[in-house]
Amino acid sequence: LGIVPSIAYNFLLPTWFALVATGAFAIGFSLVEGLRLKVSGEDLQPSTFNLQLVSGIAASFLSVFLGNLGTIQFIFNSIQRIPLQGAGVPADTPMFERWSLTFQGLWKMITEGAQMPIGRGDWYWNPSRVIPPGPGNEITEFPLFTFLYSDLHAHMLVMPIALFIIAWAVSFVLSRAQLTRAEWILSFFIGALAIGALKPTNTWDLYTYYLLAAIAMGYAIYRNVPLSILGRGVRGEGQKIIITFGAVILLYVLSSLLYYPFTYWWGQAYNSVQYWDATRTPLRSYFTQWGLFLFIITAWLAWETREWMASTPVSKLSGLKKYVLVIELVLAGFIALLVFFIVDGVYSGLISLPLALWSAILILRADLPDTKRFVLFLIGTALTITLAVEFISLVGDIGRMNTIFKLYLQAWMMFAVSAAAAFGWLLTVFFTWKAKWRNTYQGGVYILLAGAFLFTLTGTTDKISDRMNPEAPHSLDSMEYMNHAQLLDGQFMNLSEDYRAIRWMQDNVIGSPVIVEANCTEYRWCTRFTIYTGLPGVVGWNWHQRQQRGIFSIQVQDRVNEVGTFYNTTDIQSAVNFLKKYDVQYIVVGQLERNVYPILPELPDGLAKFKEYEGVYWKAVYQDGITTIYEVMP
Question: Over 60: is that where the pLDDT of 426 sits?
């Protein structure tokens, strides 16, 4: 579209946010298809609610509008630090003493006007790190934080695709595999196109969502495929199995072929996992992340179990006798795992494993609608993911940072749409419950919903106010702040000078020529021209380039070193050779370059060569203050 990155970025973020909300809505809407709630009573006017809309809106809110319960945890921890004068409460402090300190701190705030030790950015940042810091360096992001942080990385880009694949799986289950030939071809192509896209977008999601889609599709085919489809040669179970596995394999093959060029040229840096035996996720952190989802889901599981038991005559239980050995083995394995979790400190497993087993048992109910069976499968998958991260981590990662980060986001999407459907189904029976159960469920939802909304309120407000210069005008142009800000990086830099230089480059440079600018350690002002123009540089963000290029990371570091040598050297031939090697056409010499490669008394002035050889090897095409852009001469 020809829109410069600094503006296109701010168009893309809300568009992607809307895609996530819309995708979640479509799933929630479809899962409770046809449900309507009639409400009447002494104090109520008869009315009808479309539960499809309720469930769809709930899915949108749970997926991307609400946060976790981390704001409550953050306030709790902040209050605790007040009576200890900011020293913090040791992790091994008994719970009673922690609560005592909390109330002391709260009382001090009320009576003495003490300020909580909270800084700018804490309200939105801390809830994304609810697991105590340690060697795992865990990140517990969730979609709303990702969008507030404007973190346009792979984990954000994949969100609409992941939801699309869940929607595709739902549509396959709802169709009961009763499709025309054209619909089969189109469905397979669309599904394969979306599933295959996960690999170049966010490879972590490929394995989870392919299995999810394949199992849902295989289930629909196995349960509903006509027995005559293969003719007379194969009958019964054998025919179903052949068709089912054939479809699953075809889906994988087609998704791979559609993205074969990417796979062919792709060099994977991280390709193995290892057993994680360091820190575990505390129960309080697990509930902080998943509390709202688990409450709604557990309430629905309890109701479904109650309905199953109420509709099952005692006489039918005698049929379980032939499964006694299987049941005993499952129970023995279940108890053994719980004991292992207690011994190993995997306390989150005491929640996730029973709920996952509960979901698996409910799937076996004979008269259960396929949509509910699919939601139970989603719930079980999400719970299994939250348990798996306690035992595995990516080899080469920083602890289990990305293992928790990436897989928790998968679980979030599955929990969100599942809880939304569960919420819709429970509304159809809510008014038939006894008052104590209605009040318990309603009160729990209100409290947890308010806790999750606290992040929406405080995190959003904090992020809006977290600006380099609060006086800078609000604008779709994400470069505008430079006109109103200074940055200390060695020396103070007036960023308006870079703003004008970048604007000149956006307006005047044709095509995609290579540029060279200062490169330094992460989270500094370096590579700002490549960031804001989209033009290729000799090397980008040092750590990400090394991380993502795996076996070529040494070459990345070589480039970083060569950029430094280019700016510092007084050997003109060495500088010219560098320009030829990387086909550089524009050289940036600005405030940052003078800070990163300063003129030192004991060293020759490497930056002087640009002025000295101007008109010989390069020419100045832009000048503003101490910022000069040189164009390399043919």
Answer: yes
Q: 143 with 20: CB under 8 angstroms?
A: yes
Structure tokens at 336: 């053994």
Tokens of 56: 């769809």
Q: What are phi and psi of 493, to 5 degrees?
A: -120, 135
Distance CA 220, CA 218 (A): 5
Instruction: Give the rounded distance of the alpha carbon of 558 from its chain centre.
Output: 32
The mean-pLDDT minimum among 552-556, 569-573, 608-612 falls in 552-556
β-strands 514-516, 618-624 pairing: unpaired
Report the range out of 323-332, 384-393, 603-612 with the highest average pLDDT: 384-393
Within the chain, how many helices (H) and strands (E) appear?
25, 10
Q: How many residues does the chain have?
A: 634
Dump the DSSP string for 14-34: HHHHHHHHHHHHHHHHHHTTT
Say if residues 505 and 558 touch (Cβ distance below 8 Å).
no
Asked whether the beta carbons of 632 and 617 are under 8 A apart, the reply is yes
- Report strand pairing: 514-516 vs 584-589: parallel
pLDDT digit string (tens) for 485-527?
A: 888 877 889 999 999 999 999 999 999 999 999 998 888 888 9
Collapsing DSSP states into helix, strand and coil, what is residue 594?
helix
Give, for 45, the enclosing helix (H) or strand (E). strand 44-50
Residue 450: CA atoms inside 13 Å, Cβ hemisphere, count?
5
* Residues 518 and 529: beta-carbon distance below 8 Å: no
Q: Which residues contact 578 (CB under 8 A, 6 or more apart)?
A: 562, 565, 566, 584
> What is the Cα–Cα distance from 124 to 33, expressed in whole angstroms?
36
Q: How far apart are CA 50 and CA 348, in angstroms?
A: 36
Which of these, 128, 122, 215, lies nearest to 166 by C-alpha position?
Answer: 215
- What pTM does this model have? 0.87
Predicted local confidence at residue 549, as pLDDT: 74
Q: What is the mean pLDDT of residues 276-284?
A: 91
pLDDT tens per residue, range 163-198: 999 999 999 899 888 888 888 899 999 999 999 999
